[in-house]
Amino acid sequence: MCRILISTKIIIASLLLVNVAIAADKNYDTVELKEFTSIDLHLVPDLGTRLIFPFIIDDPTHKPPFAMKMTNGSLFETSFDQQQEALGQNSMVINARAPKSGGVPMGMLSDLFLSVDGYNISIRLHMTGNMDKHRQNIVFTLSDEQRLTLIERQVEARVQQALGELARKEQQLDRRTESIAISNMGVIAMHKPRITHLKERLKNTVVTGERIDIVAQAFRNYKDQYYMLEFDIDNKSTKSLSVDSLDVYSVSKQAQEPIAVSFHCDENHIIDADSVKRCLAITSDPLLLRAAKLELQVSTSLGALSGTL
After folding, report:
1. DSSP 8-class letter at 12
2. Residues 288, 222: Cα–Cα separation, whole Å
3. What burial letters (b/e) apply to 179-189, b meaning 16+ CB within 10 Å?
4. Which of 42, 136, 196, 295 lies 20 to 30 Å from 203 when distance is taken between CA atoms?
């Protein structure tokens, strides 16, 4: 998000200050862009005139994309190469070629048609030898309303671009996570665990006065890479319950340290009345086995359950 804000500031600055670079040069004309804009441009051969736009003209996000057509390419040319990749240009140079025979063929004409970001620009090109008619720069401007719209649209485009990049990275992370999970399953499936049996019943009475016990069954150690606690939830109540979450802590005289675990109690985590369901807590943290004491905290739809092993 910080990058988005920085990009936004750059966009706004470039749009608001586009005229600063040529402020000291009086040899320019300004033209406010409309949906359809027509101008006449007089060119002295080999001097060239630069067209400066208040936005990036080769921005690939423009719809429709930038398009250009010169009707008389033998005597007039532009510096802009549409075959290049988008380079972030906001200007282009138009030049009249000096005839090889010398002199200035007065009255020679061409039309240059530009379509950029929804603006259709028609420029009638005249070849001239009169320096007073020649302009080094033509600066296209926007009204305040157009400028605000442009800023909002470009900011939104940058935001969408950033969100798209974030979504792609999340997809890559999801694929990597899935690959790691499959690898973990392989370790568990291919190696016989070392089992430590427990058979400890942690009695609980919920707020309704009914009895729900946690029964610790066994620890499983898979090649010192993954550790599992098997436990049952013995629902002695007259109501079914759902298991919402499990928190596991390593308890010592000095501190209580959480252990990050994944837990599973069947697909729907529902335990019917007067029934028992096996649950698993799985982690890569060896503290699950090495802790002096473990405290289990189980959140259910009937109330909280807890116990210490």
Report:
1. H
2. 13
3. eeeeeeeeeee
4. 196
Q: Model pTM greater than 0.70?
A: no
CA distance 137 to 91: 10
Residues 165 and 95: their CA atoms lie apart, in Å, by: 40
Mapped onto helix, strand or coil, the DSSP state of residue 113 is strand
- pLDDT of 111 > 70? The answer is yes
Read off the tokens for 56: 């990036």
Residue written as tokens 């359950």?
A: 305
* Dmax (CA) of the chain: 108
CA distance 206 to 178: 38
Distances (CA, A) of 81 to 78, 94, 108, 216, 247: 8, 12, 24, 73, 63
Calculate mean pLDDT across residues 216-231.
Answer: 88
Contacts of 60 (CB under 8 A, 6+ apart): 86
Find out whether 78 and 68 touch, Cβ atoms under 8 Å.
yes
List, by residue range, all CATH 2.60.40.10 domains of the chain.
Answer: 194-308
Residue 136: name the closest of 51, 200, 227 by CA. 51
**Contact of 126 with 43, CB cutoff 8 Å:** yes
Q: How confident is the model at residue 37 (pLDDT cuts 50, 70, 90)?
A: very high
DSSP 20: G
Q: Please list the helix, strand and coil fractions of the chain in percent, rounded to the nearest 5, in that order.
A: 25, 40, 35
CATH 3.40.190.10 assigned to domain 194-308? The reply is no
